[in-house]
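Researcher: We plan to redesign the surface later, but first we want a full-length starting point. C-alpha cells attached.
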C-alpha cells in the first residue's frame, strides 16, 4: 500500500514509501543539499524506518545539485549548533574521535543491505560527502550534467564516509587514487564509461530511467535477488574456487525453496 505521508521529514531528509519502493530525498535545495551531522543521523534513521515490504530504495535530491558536500559551516570555529566542531574533534581522544566518525558513517552503511537494492539518481554536483553518498548505493543513474568530485584530500582531509571501498571497486585503485588526490570533476560520460555510473541520461529523463530500473528489479523474485546480491557482494573477497562453492550453496537453497523442501 502506498504511503503518501512521509515516514520521515527532518534535517533535509524525507522518506516516503510506495508499496515496494522507498524514496529517500535530500530536500534542502536552497543549500544545494549540503550535508551536516544532523542530516547524516536522519539518513541513518531513514534506513531504520524502512518497512519490511520495501525491495528498492531510490535516493534522489531536489534542486539542481545532488549534494554540494559538507556544509561549509563545518569549517568555521563554532561548527554546527549542538555538534562538536572540527577543533573539538581534534582535541578529543582517539576513541572519542573514532566513535564520532563511526556515528557519521551510519547514514551511509545501510544502503547495501542484502534485502534491498538501492539506486542513486544523481544530477548536477555530487561533491565530497555527496559523492560518497552516491557511492553508498548499489547502483547509480546519472544525468548528463552530473559532476562528481572527491575534494577531501584537497582540504587536507581524507574521504571518511565509506566512499573509498566502493570507489576502488568500481574504477580500480589507480583511477580512484587520481580522482581523490586531484579532486577533479568526473563527468557523466566518464562515469558511465568507467563503471562509476550504470547509466547516464539527459537530465529530463533521469526520473523515468530510475523508475524503469526499479521496475526491472522488482520483476525478479525477491529471494532470488537477495541471494544473487549476497553472492556478488561476497565475490570480492572469495577465491574463484570459494565462489564456486558459494554458488552451489546458494543454488541449493533456491532449489529447495522452489520445491518446498526444507533443510
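Model: Full-length starting sequence:
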Amino acid at each position: 500500500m502506498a504511503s503518501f505521508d512521509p515516514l520521515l521529514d527532518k534535517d533535509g531528509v524525507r522518506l516516503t514509501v510506495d508499496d515496494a519502493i522507498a524514496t529517500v530525498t535530500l530536500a534542502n535545495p536552497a543549500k544545494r543539499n549540503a550535508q551536516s551531522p544532523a542530516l547524516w543521523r536522519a539518513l541513518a534513521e531513514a534506513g531504520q524506518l524502512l518497512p519490511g515490504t520495501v525491495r528498492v530504495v531510490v535516493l534522489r535530491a531536489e534542486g539542481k545539485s545532488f549534494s554540494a558536500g559538507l556544509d561549509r559551516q563545518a569549517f568555521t570555529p563554532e561548527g554546527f549548533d549542538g555538534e562538536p566542531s572540527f577543533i573539538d574533534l581534534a582535541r578529543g581522544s582517539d576513541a572519542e574521535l573514532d566513535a564520532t566518525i563511526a556515528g557519521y558513517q551510519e547514514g551511509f552503511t545501510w544502503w547495501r543491505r542484502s534485502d534491498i537494492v538501492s539506486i542513486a539518481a544523481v544530477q548536477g554536483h555530487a561533491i565530497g560527502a555527496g559523492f560518497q553518498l552516491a557511492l553508498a548505493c548499489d547502483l547509480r543513474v546519472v544525468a548528463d550534467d552530473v559532476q562528481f568530485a572527491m575534494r577531501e584530500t584537497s582540504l587536507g582531509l581524507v574521504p571518511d564516509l565509506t566512499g573509498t571501498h566502493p570507489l576502488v571497486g568500481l574504477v580500480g585503485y589507480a583511477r580512484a587514487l587520481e580522482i581523490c588526490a586531484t579532486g577533479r570533476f568526473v563527468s557523466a560520460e566518464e562515469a558511465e564509461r568507467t563503471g562509476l555510473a550504470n547509466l547516464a541520461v539527459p537530465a529530463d529523463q533521469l526520473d523515468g530511467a530510475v523508475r524503469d530500473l526499479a521496475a526491472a528489479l522488482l520483476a525478479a523474485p525477491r529471494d532470488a535477488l537477495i541471494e544473487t546480491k549476497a553472492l556478488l557482494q561476497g565475490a570480492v573477497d572469495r577465491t574463484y574456487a570459494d565462489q564456486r562453492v558459494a554458488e552451489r550453496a546458494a543454488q541449493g537453497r533456491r532449489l529447495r525453496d522452489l520445491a518446498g523442501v526444507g533443510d
